[in-house]
Design goal:
Number of domains of chain B: 2
Helix content of chain B: 55-70%
Strand order of the largest sheet of chain A: 1-2
Distance between the termini of chain A: 63 Å
Largest sheet of chain B: none
Number of domains of chain A: 1
Helix content of chain A: 55-70%
Strand content of chain A: under 5%
Radius of gyration of chain B: 31 Å
Largest interface: A-B, 54 and 54 residues
Number of strands of chain A: 2
Number of helices of chain A: 13
CATH topology of chain A: Cytochrome Bc1 Complex, Chain C
Number of strands of chain B: 0
CATH superfamily of chain A: Cytochrome Bc1 Complex, Chain C
Oligomer: heterodimer
Distance between the termini of chain B: 93 Å
Structural class of chain A: mainly alpha
CATH architecture of chain A: Up-down Bundle
Shape of chain A: globular
Chain lengths: 368, 221
């Protein structure tokens, strides 16, 4: 009886979330309306993230033509792309800058969706798939960072993988061996080497894009089926048609962002912001340059990791992921005003840690 | 006999290196000058300096390269062409401009090197003089490395025509999308008014503002 009830409840849940009667052009495109209010700008962030992902896809494909995923040739092939292939520096910069822009867009999209309570029934699947896309995007960043095989890439990856293994010390019994096994599975050998590069490359160019496409399809279908959430506690009653007006504005935003991205990629090499020894070919027997850090979008977890006990960060990180995934049920009765306050607090933490993380670290540790 | 000559050349080169092959005073000055970290690759072929057996270090040099190194080491006075296998292009140019004697004298006051070297040379063509790159701790031999603000200014000037073209292309693309959407709306039987005649963005915007007064949709929950 209980099983039958469970099946019935599950079926009802899925029927509500994927109403077959709405799966037609009329509902998905022609009659869809988008609410207009003071937070309407946030509706464009998801599309922006999608556009930046497409830029990643196209530029990544172009880089694949020349990149060689071997420890002996990876760095040289990246240098070749930058120095000797026509338009190579531009494509590589587009890939790098748009990766950062995509992560920024995805995080802001998540924060605004949270503040607008976009996870409320019947949009739970939209939200959960969005959180999965966020995690996949971070995984893209982590795996892509290693590929140029330069000093900062390899050393930062070592630190990242090491932290997985350290988690084992806080798990009971046989479970304590799991993180180590996971690290070995990702790493492929005793230390970061050819097997690691091969695995990261495969994950970066094949596994993650496939997973991204799958989850993205679910996310977009869900968004189209249920429309945008009302966004504010007191709806204005004003709406605009999704097609063609919202789409058109989306296209113009994409155009503007593309132009900005192009100018930045052409005129501002990403590596100019760093010390050059960090971009020399990784040398296992050579000296490790100062300033090894992960990419800026991991600072929010990197600096606390440097300052606080590992178990605190591990607990906080896992709790944060669990809360994010379960947000539709945890915050079911929370007002948008309260969600807004939580969002501002989280956003403040992220900005402070990203921008002032180094200063905070030095303040507590007394020097870099 | 040939082996003995080569061995003698290698020993001479190696001893030379320990005497005057690397001048860490310059690196130390730059390190104190800028928040960036620098290493020997500022002037040398290898980041760890000339001593060792890796590419660009003395221990890895072929007999021909050792001969080139010894020749480069004879450039005590300015004006001699230098192509040392353990120096990068900036290091070579420095020896050409200042001579080894000049460089050895500057070891005591490495902050004077930019003035002595001059601000005319820009080896990588990134718009930032080599001497300025030395002060900033950036690579004078890499056009993609330099002070970000200076690079941006230079690249904007150098690429303005590309930027104009890409802006025109993007605008044309958006104009095309504009029309495509209007056509598509007509094709799926949308608002006929939108598909009539021109379907520029202005028309969409005007219609959009009208639509904003619509009542709330049933899609909202």
């Amino acid at each position: 009886m209980k099983t039958a009830q469970l099946v019935q409840t599950s079926l009802e849940f899925l029927t509500d979330r994927f109403p077959i009667e709405k799966m037609n052009v009329n509902s998905l495109v022609r009659t869809k309306e988008v609410p207009v209010h003071r937070m309407s700008w946030a509706y464009y962030l998801g599309g922006l993230a999608l556009f930046l992902f497409l830029v990643q896809l196209v530029t990544g494909l172009m880089l694949m033509f020349y990149y060689e995923p071997t420890v002996s040739d990876a760095h040289a092939s990246v240098e070749r792309i930058t120095e000797h292939i026509g338009g190579g520096a531009l494509v590589r910069n587009l890939h790098t800058w748009s990766a950062s822009a995509m992560i920024f867009a995805v995080v802001v999209h998540m924060l605004t969706a949270f503040a607008m309570k976009a996870f409320a029934k019947p949009r739970e699947i939209t939200w959960v798939s969005g959180v999965l896309l966020l995690l996949i995007t971070f995984a893209f960043g982590f795996t892509g960072y290693l590929l140029p095989w330069h000093q900062i890439a390899v050393n930062a990856t070592k630190v990242g993988l090491q932290s997985i293994e350290e988690a084992g010390a806080y798990l009971p019994g046989a479970m304590s061996a799991w993180p180590g096994a996971l690290k070995e599975l990702i790493q492929g050998e005793a230390s970061v080497g050819q097997a690691t590069l091969s695995r990261f490359y495969a994950i970066h160019v094949m596994v993650l894009p496939l997973a991204f496409f799958g989850v993205l399809s679910l996310h977009l279908l869900s968004v189209q089926l249920h429309g945008m959430s009302q966004g504010v506690d007191r709806p204005t009653g004003r709406t605009e048609r999704f097609f063609p007006f919202f789409i058109l504005k989306d296209a113009w935003l994409w155009g503007v962002v593309f132009l900005v991205l192009f100018v930045v990629a052409l005129c501002l090499p990403f590596e100019a912001f760093f010390s050059y020894p960090l971009f020399e070919a990784y040398d296992a027997m050579g000296s490790t340059p100062d300033g090894i850090k992960p990419e800026w979008y991991f600072y929010f977890i990197y600096y606390p990791l440097e300052l606080l006990p590992f178990w605190v960060i591990m607990l906080a990180q896992n709790a944060a992921i669990a809360v994010l995934l379960a947000a539709p049920w945890i915050f079911r009765k929370t007002s948008r005003r309260a969600l807004g306050v939580i969002t501002v607090a989280v956003a403040t933490y992220l900005v402070v840690m990203t921008v002032f993380g180094q200063q905070i670290y030095e303040m507590f540790k007394g020097g870099a | 006999m040939r082996r003995m000559v080569l061995a003698a050349m290698w020993v001479t080169a190696a001893l030379g290196a320990s005497r005057a092959g690397a001048y860490p005073e310059f690196q130390a000055w730059v390190d104190g000058q800028t928040p960036r970290n620098v290493n020997c690759a500022l002037c040398h072929a290898h980041g760890d300096g000339p001593d060792g057996v890796k590419p660009g270090q003395i221990g890895s040099l072929s007999p021909e390269q050792l001969a080139a190194l010894n020749e480069a080491r004879q450039a005590f006075e300015p004006g001699q062409q230098v192509d040392s296998p353990i120096l990068n292009e900036f290091g070579d140019r420095m020896v050409e401009k200042l001579g080894r004697t000049g460089i050895i004298q500057l070891r005591q006051r490495p902050g004077d090197l930019p003035q002595a070297y001059g601000f005319e040379s820009d080896l990588d063509g990134d718009g930032i003089p080599d001497a300025r790159e030395y002060i900033d701790g950036t690579l004078a031999t890499n056009a993609h490395h330099g002070d970000p603000w200076l690079l941006l200014r230079h690249n904007l000037k150098a690429n303005w025509w590309h930027l104009v073209l890409i802006a025109i292309a993007t605008l044309l693309g958006l104009y095309g999308i504009n029309n495509l959407l209007a056509w598509f709306e007509q094709a799926i039987g949308g608002d006929e008014e939108a598909a009539e005649g021109e379907a520029g963005i202005m028309k969409f915007e005007i219609r959009n503002s009208k639509l904003e007064t619509n009542s709330n949709s049933t899609i909202l929950k």
